[in-house]
Specification:
- The complex is a heterodimer of chains A (289) and B (161).
- By secondary structure, chain A is α+β, with helices and mostly antiparallel strands.
- Chain A contains 12 helices and 14 strands.
- Chain A has 3 domains: 47 residues, 2-Layer Sandwich (Uridine Diphospho-n-acetylenolpyruvylglucosamine Reductase, domain 2), CATH 3.30.43; 116 residues, Uridine Diphospho-n-acetylenolpyruvylglucosamine Reductase, domain 3 (2-Layer Sandwich); 109 residues, Enolase-like, domain 1, CATH 3.30.390.
- Chain A has a 5-stranded antiparallel β-sheet with strand order 4-5-10-6-7. In chain A, strands 11-12-13-14 form a 4-stranded antiparallel β-sheet, with helices on both faces. A 3-stranded parallel β-sheet of chain A has the order 1-3-2, with helices on one face.
- In chain A, strand 6 and strand 7 form a beta hairpin.
- In chain A, helix 5 runs antiparallel to helix 8 and helix 10 packs antiparallel against helix 11.
- The radius of gyration of chain A is 19 Å and the shape is globular.
- Chain B has 2 domains: 77 residues, Roll (Ubiquitin-like (UB roll)); 69 residues, Orthogonal Bundle (DNA polymerase, domain 1).
- By secondary structure, chain B is of the alpha+beta class.
- In chain B, helix 2 crosses helix 5 and helix 4 runs antiparallel to helix 5.
- Chain B has a 5-stranded mixed β-sheet, covered by helices on one side.
- In chain B, 32% of the residues lie in helices and 17% in strands.
- Classes of the chains: A alpha+beta (289), B alpha+beta (161).
- Bound molecules: FE2/S2 (inorganic) cluster (2 copies).
Amino acid sequence: MKPAPFDYVRPASVGEACRVLAESGGGATVIAGGQTLMPLLNLRMSQPFVLVDINGIPELKGVSRVEGGTRVGPATRQADALEDETLARHLPAFITALGHVGHYQTRNRGTIGGSVALGEPAAEMPATAVSLGATIEITSSARTRSVPADEFYVGPYMTVLEPDELVTGIVYPDWPDGHLVLFREVAQRAGDFALVGLVGALALEGGAITRAGIAWFGMGPTPIRARQAEAALVGASLAGIDAEAVARAAVADTAPFDDHHASAEYRRTVGARIFARALRETLDLRSAA
Amino acid sequence: MSEHAIELTVNGHCHATRVEARTSLGEFLRDGLGYTGTHLACEHGVCGACTVMIDGRAMRSCLMLAVQADGAEVTTVEGLAEADGTLHPVQQALKDNFGLQCGFCTPGVAITMACVTRDNAGVEAPRMEDALTTAMSGHICRCTGYQGIRRAIRQLAGAST
Ligand code: FES
Ligand code: FES
């Protein structure tokens, strides 16, 4: 198996990368870890003229604290992010979700930005960015902009990213200390894309929920915010939460497909189950502590 | 299509050569350099047969281009045993426990096991067993039914069974 022919360039800076992207007039594709792109190249489902390898750009790697949040460089390896203490301290939901991305071997090469920017609807990282309220930093030769993760995804593998644009950072806002992680997924095998999954965070104060950010993956063409569930949860006291009712509200926001792995109906049924279970588990943990 | 001069180390030997941009690292190791111990099966990241160590980390060589390995230190299954033929402990454990049949998946399995045992050296048996078992999700074996591989894992972890 061989990809169709292409030219390979390995720019040393964001400026150089953007220049190549601009000059290629849409014929270039960015490669970071390549753990999803390489299969597409090998199967010739993707046939770029130019492959722009961003692994040699130091400014795209690493995790840093910024005003009000944590910034992750897109070329940061998933395995390195999993071990990162700043992420573990500030973004436990991110770490939980990341542990479910691919396999040990693919996390050693795969990157955070690759997963976020590709927009596979059943992947954990796009939904995590949406649920936590992350912002995607984007640069091209012409301009720089920031897009809320919520508005970044437009369809399966489709984002608002223009052909000449590069993701240069993902900024995850801080959540209150001690916030809780919501995570569940059902996949056929460990490391597979989820049939259905959810990720998010809940902040509590005095026995009531003050902030909720929850998103589904595998439940539609993009990651999907569980807006109705979030609205039902914020302000609710723990004693007053009906997990099944909230789960039904959460599923009401989804638009799952039938495919050869599972029907839309299966996804809705299982989604409601795992949502309610995740909610009960997360909140019980808290009351037991 | 662009062509590139690359220099890399494979199992301690330096190689300087030219590669086409689209050549995968796995294909290059096998057809370019003759390290045919690295097996290519699915060539799209699903099976794990092609797993090699790149700068000490287990990765799929079908999901990386040879040109991207410029400057890297690569270890393939040929590099695991001692020069005198003494097997690496993971190879010995696979052999002792019937952890392979046709052996097609085995080079990748052995590389992953070598990385995981090295990174977790000194941890107690259940944790080692867990780390190895979890990492096995990245490999498909069509022969053994995995039970031989699991026995090899338990032996490596030092568990009593
Ligand atoms: S050949 Fe590389 S994962 Fe199957
Ligand atoms: S031993 Fe034959 S595939 Fe694993």
